[in-house]
Design a protein that fits this description.
Blueprint (H helix, E strand, L loop, with lengths): L14 H9 L6 H8 L3 H14 L2 E6 L9 E5 L5 E7 L3 E8 L4 E8 L6 H18 L7 E8 L3 E2 L4 E2 L25 E5 H7 L12 E6 L3 E7 L2 E3 L31 H4 L1 H10 L7 H9 L3 H25 L3 E5 L6 H15 L2 H4 L3 E4 L6 H14 L2 H7 L8
Parallel strand pairs: 3-6, 6-9, 10-13, 13-14
Antiparallel strand pairs: 1-2, 3-4, 4-5, 7-8, 10-11, 11-12
């Protein structure tokens, strides 16, 4: 999710770096690229020839000119391929086929029983992606990358889940091999909160370089963005909000096996258990949220109290990191007014005033589609990262 920026004097700029300039609008004519990079006209033409041969760049409308023949603008060709977005949750999977600008071409969302083994679930995902690819009118050769999000900690070296209580039996199972016979494309895996943070690339991240994206759903997690860069930590475990200790959870056993975790009193699964214990038929946090939005007093009280407890614990992260914004996403954020009322109460009562003086508390931009938007953004930005792209251009992409 690294932000691409032009650096004056970054000579010699590679084809991948030139594409980054075109994509972010820093330089969209040959002369502008030469001015920003310091490359000669011949060198600029050589880089563009590679990008145009790959189909990644096309010439568009003529740019305004102060005299003489107006220069043609250069455009990123987002139709040159597609990416798969695969947002895997405990009991729901959201899938999409998107172009390289993130526009959804076809999508699907299905609920299923929790606890499915990775083999059964991933096989079903691949089959559904085949159907979506047909629906989008694209072929396997058009697939450039696959972005996957899963709950819990991710082992980035292995491309696998790392001891997540939400995905029993998935620990250490690499996910990329499930796609190997289907699509010759790189797989990019991250956890669900980080994917939600990636969904804000070009939206809230265009305004706030430092933010915390809090996913409040069945579980609780945080995507941490500092100076526009996603922070994963040394072993990928940064942002495990749900398993920080909370005084309100003293003596309560969490599903991770520990005692006193925030999730045990504020996670969606704990709220569902609480309402079920009161004799209400609730199977998932989304049902609880729907009840709250319909005005159910018990559901609203539980969600507001969850917000307050999350705010109390997140206050420490706000004190440590001093973000410009806290963004709320996930299933419970659909009952935003109810959740944020409690969240603000807990946050502002426990965070230092200097850290909250100008802090913005916001709702995620994409709602229920944030997961697939984030997986798409993660896949595209990783695929087109200049160094990776330069290596990939030795094997050019076919034109769409």
């Amino acid at each position: 999710m690294a932000r691409m920026s032009a650096v004056q004097g970054a000579t010699p700029a590679t084809a991948g770096e030139v594409l980054a300039l075109i994509r972010n609008g820093s330089a969209v004519t040959r002369s502008a690229i030469a001015a920003v990079t310091g490359l000669s006209r011949t060198a600029v033409s050589a880089r563009l020839a590679v990008l145009m041969e790959s189909g990644l760049v096309v010439e568009g409308e003529e740019a305004p000119s102060g005299g003489g023949r107006p220069p043609a603008t250069l455009q990123f060709n987002s139709a040159v391929g597609v990416v798969f977005a695969v947002a895997i949750g405990r009991s729901r999977t959201q899938l999409a086929v998107c172009d390289l600008a993130g526009r959804i071409q076809a999508q699907d969302s299905r609920d299923h029983a929790p606890g499915l083994a990775p083999g059964a679930r991933m096989t079903g995902i691949v089959e559904r992606l085949r159907s979506l690819l047909d629906e989008a009118g694209r072929g396997v050769a058009d697939v450039r990358a696959i972005g996957i999000s899963i709950p819990g900690t991710v082992d980035h070296d292995a491309g696998a889940s790392l001891d997540s209580p939400l995905l029993p039996g998935w620990d250490g199972v690499p996910l990329a091999p499930f796609f190997a016979e289907f699509a010759d494309a790189p797989v990019f895996l991250d956890n669900d909160a980080n994917a939600l943070a990636a969904s804000e690339t070009g939206f809230l991240l265009a305004t706030y370089d430092d933010l915390l994206l809090v996913k409040v759903s069945t579980g609780l997690g945080v995507g941490i963005v500092v100076r526009g860069e996603l922070v994963r930590g040394a072993w990928g475990a940064a942002g495990e909000l749900g398993h920080l200790k909370s005084a309100a959870a003293a003596g309560r056993t969490c599903r991770c096996g520990e005692v006193g975790c925030l999730e045990a009193v504020a996670g969606g699964w704990a709220l569902v258990q609480e309402l079920s214990a009161r004799g209400r038929e609730v199977e998932h946090v989304r049902v609880l949220v729907a009840l709250a939005r319909e005005g159910d007093a018990e559901a609203r009280a539980l969600i507001r109290e969850s917000g307050r407890r999350v705010g109390e614990v997140l206050a420490q992260a706000v004190n440590l990191l001093n973000p410009a914004a806290v963004v709320l996403g996930g299933d419970m954020a659909a009952a935003y007014d109810t959740f944020v009322a409690g969240f603000r109460e807990g946050l502002y009562a426990n965070a230092a005033s200097v850290a909250t003086r100008r802090l913005q508390v916001l709702q995620s931009t994409h709602g229920e589609e944030a997961g697939i938007v984030g997986c798409t953004s993660m896949a595209v930005e990783s695929l087109l990262e200049p160094a990776r792209l330069d290596r990939m251009l030795a094997r050019p992409l076919a034109r769409a």
